[in-house]
Amino acid sequence: MSGSVYSASLSAALNDYWQALERRWTRDAGQTLRGGTTQIDGAPEPARWQVPVEARGHLTTCPVVAWAVNDSTPANRPSAPCDGWSVQDARYVECRAADVFSQVGDWAWAKREQLAAALPDLAGGPELSSLEDARESLLDADKTLRPEGSVDAYALPGVVEKLSVRDDSNNNRAWLAGWTGLAANSLKGGFLSTVGPTLKNQSVLVRWLANCYSLRATTIHATRNNTLQLLARATSELFEAAAPSSDTPKEKVAVNAASQAWGIVTTVTTALGEEAPGSIGTALSLIDFALNLREGKPNEELKFPQLSAFFTHLDAAVRALHEELTAAETDYQRAITAIDHRIAGVDRTMLELYDFTKSSPDGDDSDPSASGRFAVDVVVVMEIAQHCVDAASHYSELLRKVATASYSDGQLAGRGVVPTAGDTALIALRTEVESFFQKTTARYLQAADRIKKAAEKYAASDAEQKARLQAAIADWHKAGEDDKRTEVDLDPRKEGVQQ
Fold first, then answer.
1. Which SS3 state, helix, strand or coil, does residue 373 take?
2. Comparing 470 with 76, which gets the higher pLDDT?
3. What local confidence, expressed as pLDDT, does residue 461 receive?
């Protein structure tokens, strides 16, 4: 639901309330005048005309008062002013009933404006479609990280599977026998041991992040729905008859954002790497607030016979609406805080890959002669480097998708289009997750360069290996791996990158 659609719906609902209130208040004022007094219930100020004693008889038959009591619709208001003829006294008296009803109309409009100012100010934004776009972009990234069904060998999970080293039978893969020794062990025990956990944890992170955007959109959407429902309900209650004492009050139907069991709040307490929460989504629709007002009988049969009691009831409902929104926004912030705490408790190498700068500059490039035993097939080594380039290419696209969510930063806001603490925290969280993908992309490229350099060093001391390396490099060029590497971009916001 766009901000403009909600704004128009809100204005229409407020106008319905104002018009119904003016009719009800006019009718009540007519009944009061007919009783010979101007002490109108719920009035914010004294009536401009205090009924003199000699005019009380006239008001029992005054056509303007009769219109107010029996009709009260502006379209049928008597066009001619009352001449003050008193049937009972057979003489003319002062009659300013029309002036009183005009004042009542001003009161009704003032109440409309007062209510409009008291409601949660969500008409100017945010645009929920933008938040949903951010969510969809993140879920699209998750599909790349965690495709359903069989794993394509050329998709990112397939490429990572080729590289991943785990403490199970996976360690028996063919390439491990084609490159052994200290350099290979350093690579396996360092960088390649982190590619699988990083992929898995990043999948959980983008799903959590997507759910946060969905949670924010749902909170705003539900509150907008609740606001329209509150207005519709208040409008109908002005003429609603009191329920028979034998009837059980009907439960109020409402989309209460705060009372929902947001799965994300509890799910984030589990460790990274476990199953991510399902999407909350925003599958809510605007309520139909068109009303069929029916004429009320005497006030004592109405649900709210006194408008003063109705206004007290309405004020409480508006306060509850704010409390519900505040509670929902608190849950939203808690969800983000919980995610931050989980991230803080995870080794960074399991979120953004092994950091080569923390190891020896030559740790993965060569085998010290003291190792005594090592085996090298430079073709196998080059294949590993090629897989790293393939992974970097996939991650470059993922980085763009995660960064696309930043387009909705301006729509992360609450009342009065002012970002809440949760909104600010979500932007910081998305920025941090984006940095994980950026570092992962860069480290795959760094790994490819280091592994390729290692192959070149091995080939420099072995003529047969040199020939095999040259053939592998030729295949590399033929497959377009060099072009693929140059297409990897670490700056998703650079002009021309995001399309």
1. coil
2. 76
3. 65
Least confident span in 65-74, 83-92, 139-148: 139-148
DSSP string, 321-356: HHHHHHHHHHHHHHHHHHHHHHHHTS-THHHH---G
Nearest to 331 by CA among 256, 439, 219: 219
Q: Which tokens is 433 given?
A: 């997750």
Nearest to 209 by CA among 434, 21, 58: 434
Cα 403 to its chain centre, rounded Å, is 17
User: What is the Cα–Cα distance from 352 to 439, expressed in whole angstroms?
Assistant: 6
pTM > 0.85: yes or no: no
Give the other-Cβ count within 10 Å of 338's Cβ: 18
The rounded mean pLDDT for the chain is 80
CB 59 within 8 A of CB 98: no
Q: How many CB atoms lie within 10 A of CB 346?
A: 15
Query: Which residue, among 289, 136, 284, 133, has the nearest Cα to 220 in the 3D structure?
Result: 284
CA 8 to mean position of chain CA atoms: 21
DSSP code string of 44-75: SS--S-PPPGGGHHHHTT-HHHHHHHHT--GG
Give the burial string for 128-163 (b: 16+ CB within 10 Å, else e).
bebbbbbbbbbbbbbebbbeeeeeeeebbbbbbbbb
Contact 286, 1 (CB under 8 A): yes
Helix (H) or strand (E) holding 179: strand 179-180
Instruction: Give the other-Cβ count within 10 Å of 115's Cβ.
Output: 20
The two three-digit tokens of residue 260, written as one number: 């929902």
Q: Which one-letter DSSP state was computed for residue 150?
A: S
| Phi, psi torsion values for 180, nearest 5 degrees | -130, 165
Q: 185: exposed, middle or buried (C-beta count within 10 Å: 0-12, 13-18, 19+)?
A: middle
Which amino acid, 126? P
Choose among 191, 495, 480: nearest CA to 349: 191
